[in-house]
Write a structure and sequence with these properties.
single chain, alpha/beta, six-stranded parallel beta sheet, 10 helices, 6 strands, 12% strand
């Protein structure tokens, strides 16, 4: 069984997420985190995270700013490597889930936009603790933790994988910081870390 985080793992939106964080914090006259600080420290709930840096933002404004920036820089697309990885799992009839802190309707809308809904058995979204989503999938399939992989791009993802005993695969794809991103994920408990989903796909082909 495979679980994917959504933002930053399926979707290539690390840069967008960091831009929104910095914009919110700047509006609150706070000091935004550096990219490495963001990669190391980010965890949901999102609004609690940015308030720690001085932002004062209602939830509705958060999503409107996200959407405005997405339109300005171009809507994020799936990471290169995601389609062949999903197709590979599909051919092998491996159940794949999204386990994300994002809102379910936003995940579903983006899945439809990217034409990838057919590859996912289900969506566990809106739970700020990824442990809950992973546990639900383990229970649904009655599998032992060592038979499940959880793929994510943030330390909280790898910590959730470690806490539940599943195999954690880190995707350290932050542009210009890939090596450090992978190191951060390994320190958080990832079994393996790759600088892109495409590199993860290559490893699957080699028999990871």
């Amino acid at each position: 069984v495979v679980g994917f985080d959504w933002n930053g793992t399926i979707m290539a939106d690390n840069d967008l997420m960091y831009m929104v964080v910095c914009e919110h914090v700047a509006l609150g006259l706070g000091k935004p985190p550096t990219v490495p600080e963001f990669l190391r420290s980010f965890k949901p709930p999102y609004l609690d995270y940015i308030r720690h840096y001085g932002a004062v933002v209602p939830e509705s404004q958060n999503w409107s700013m996200w959407d405005d920036m997405a339109r300005e820089i171009g809507h994020p697309v799936v990471h290169t490597g995601v389609p062949p990885v999903l197709e590979r799992f599909s051919r092998r009839e491996i159940p794949v889930y999204v386990i994300s802190a994002n809102q379910r309707h936003r995940v579903e809308e983006e899945m439809a936009r990217q034409h990838i809904r057919e590859f996912f058995r289900g969506i566990h979204a809106g739970d700020q603790d990824k442990v809950g989503g992973i546990t639900k999938v383990l229970t649904e399939h009655s599998v032992s933790p060592n038979k499940m992989v959880y793929i994510g791009d943030m330390p909280v993802d790898m910590q959730a994988a470690k806490k539940t005993g599943v195999i954690g695969i880190g995707i350290g794809s932050a542009r210009g910081h890939e090596e450090e991103h992978c190191k951060i994920l390994l320190e958080a408990g990832a079994t393996h870390a790759f600088s892109s989903v495409a590199k993860f796909h290559d490893a699957l082909i080699r028999g990871l």
